[in-house]
User: Fold these one by one.
Assistant:
Number 1:
Amino acid sequence: MIYQQPVCHEFHLLKPKVLLMIGQADRTTLGRNRVTPEVLKTLGQYPELGRKTAKIIPNFRLVEIPNCGHIPHFEAPQVFNSELLKFLSE
């Protein structure tokens, strides 16, 4: 799906409760070797994208995890597990 279209245009259609956990140090970028350095600086801005997404999806909860990259369930398992269990119990 990520290779075919920007999925962000469909976020507003989501009906279930949504939990998004974002590592604040995540700068993962697909195709980073195919863009100019100037364009690369604008990609992988997940903290900003998460806050924008929070305004689009109904029933949405954003958890921003400091000092964490792309895999919060490995990098910050205590925070990840705690937030996930809290979300599932709601």
Number 2:
Amino acid sequence: FCGLLGAGELVDDPRFATNQVRVKNRDELRPLIQSYLEKRTAQEWEKICLEAGVPVAHVRKTSDVITDEQILARDMIKKVRLPGGEEIGTWGVPVKVDGVSFTRPLAIPAMDQHRAEILSELGLGGGKDG
């Protein structure tokens, strides 16, 4: 890990020589590691770690995920129309099966749109006032 960070001097530091002393001295170790991590972007660290065989992925914001080439290639963002006519993106079906086409997501219902039907099914009457 220290080699990937470019922090070779930490390897020989007795404060961090074993897991037990690293835990004991973690308040000193964390800012040191942070100072190295701040030198690169999350994407750069992800690439460095993957090239070294370390399984890793940086935490992404929703805005990053919805523009990710893999998400778009897998058709994971589906458009739905709100009752007022506005169209928004929502998540598609994550499981893909060759030869199977999944339907578009249903429209999002308006507030109280199905109230009468739900109350009727529950035996509670179907009027707007209950």
